[in-house]
Amino acid sequence: MPRHLNSDAHEKQWYQRRVRASEKARHPGSKTNFTHEIQFLNPLELPAIPTFRVLDSHGNIKSDDAPKLSDDELVEIYKKMSLLSKMDKILLQSQRQGRISFYMTCSGEEAAVIGSAAALQDVDTVFTQYREVGVFLWRGFTLQDIMHQCFSTHKDNTKGRQMPIHYSAKKLNIQCVSSTLATQVPNAVGYAYSNKIKGIKAVTVSYFGEGAASEGDVHAAMNMAAVLRCPTLFICRNNGYAISTKTEDQYAGDGIAVRAIGYGMRSLRVDGNDLFAVHRAVSDARKVAIEESCPVLIELMTYRVGHHSTSDDSSAYRSIDEVNYWNKEDSPVGRLGLYLIKHKLWDNDTEQSYAKECRKEIMGAFNLAESSLKPSPYLVFDDVYDTPSSTLAQQRETLHQHLQAYGEHYNLGDYDV
Questions:
Q1: CA–CA distance from 127 to each of 183, 205, 209, 327, 347 (Å)?
Q2: pLDDT at 23
Q3: 125 by DSSP, 3-state: which?
Q4: Quick check: helix, strand or coil at residue 235?
Q5: Spatial separation of the C-alpha atoms in residues 241 and 96, rounded to whole Å
């Protein structure tokens, strides 16, 4: 015993401190105390993470935590959600008619996408998956931009190199869509880390589905974001299906939000069909991520009403009754519409008038893109090297000579040459 402890009281205090210290696990990476009882953690005995909701299915506010959105903001958000829904229907039909080659709808997930986009700032860089065209729309990507991309015209800003719905909007701070699942997630973390080093006060946002959350890239990205404290906002759209695989066949645990705890980051589960809840959650998460320089995971519980894509037939793995419930009884567009009507911000006449306006605008952009020229075949040689090589120049000249000789067989009048 240290010499300065010369009384029984001091000896007792010293001993108690030693006991308490010995009960603390000191292994590297450990943050727990020792226990002398063996007890396995059973997830079935733990409570599930609750789902934050503000607006119920009948358009009534049920929470004091509703975001402070003005009437004009709510109407604008509703109009964008409605426009997205109507555009999806037209482009889906056009693919069935063979007028575009591929499409994916956002049906049933309009609040999750538009609501989250409305809560972000333009300085925030977004990495989408492939069902977030609403983010593009909200930030100013026009219907004409969308149509030119889906038809791969000479005015498509990706120069006709991407399949439909693979949009890109550098000027709007949105990275190019990639079909490869989850590759955007670690990219977003790296981008956020770069911003942190530079002192840029913004979040980097990564959207993905619960199916993509099974990819190893998501694990690596979240762990890196948590350890390096990168201001990253992970937004998971849990829409019930990874193509045809139901959630119960994807994971045995309590969804996606609970995984954040294992990485050491904050998380929140939200009713993704509730515009108010989505906006409040993303707005608050953004503030936390920037002020504390840390990642946040938000799991938006929603439902994919449409097929996975035009290559899918969801009737093979789910019932019409199931789809009809979410399409009619708990539609995010319908739910917000009920709220607006109850507060005299919208009515049936306005709805009919706006529907006609939307169709006119959509079809105008659609018809213009469908009748536009295709990109020049010579664009295949651009953007490969900063300074074109002699080999590339030779290949370009070979193509030019070939088209000069056999151009009548290629319908060159349809191309911007």
A1: 10, 6, 13, 27, 36
A2: 77
A3: strand
A4: strand
A5: 22
CB 134 within 8 A of CB 84: yes
Contact 269, 50 (CB under 8 A): yes
Contacts of 311 (CB under 8 A, 6+ apart): 102
Query: Do 278 and 112 contact (CB within 8 A), yes or no?
Result: yes
How many angstroms separate the Cα of 155 from the Cα of each of 76, 140, 258, 414? Answer: 28, 17, 44, 13
SS3 108: coil
CB atoms within 10 A of CB 307: 21
In the Cβ-directed half-sphere of 253, how many Cα atoms lie within 13 Å?
Answer: 13
Q: Is 327 left (phi over 0), alpha (psi -120 to 50) or beta?
A: alpha
DSSP 334: H
β-bridge pairing 232-238 and 296-301: parallel
Angle (CA) 120-78-63 rounded to 5° is: 70
Q: What is the pLDDT of residue 397?
A: 97
Q: What would the pLDDT profile of 200-248 be if each residue is shown by its tens digit?
A: 999 999 999 999 999 999 999 999 999 999 999 999 999 999 999 999 9
* pTM summary value: 0.92
Could you give the CA distance from residue 156 to residue 317 in angstroms, rounded to a whole number? 36
Helices (H), 180-319: 184-198, 216-228, 259-263, 275-292
Please check whether residue 306 is in contact with residue 85, taking contact to mean a CB–CB distance below 8 angstroms.
no
Residues 53, 54, 56, CA angle at the centre, nearest 5°? Answer: 85
Note whether 85 and 354 are within 8 A (CB): no
Bridge partner residues of 207 (DSSP): 235
- Asked whether the beta carbons of 139 and 122 are under 8 A apart, the reply is yes
pLDDT at 20: 54
Residue whose C-alpha is closest to residue 303's, from 285, 280, 324: 324
DSSP 8-class letter at 61: B
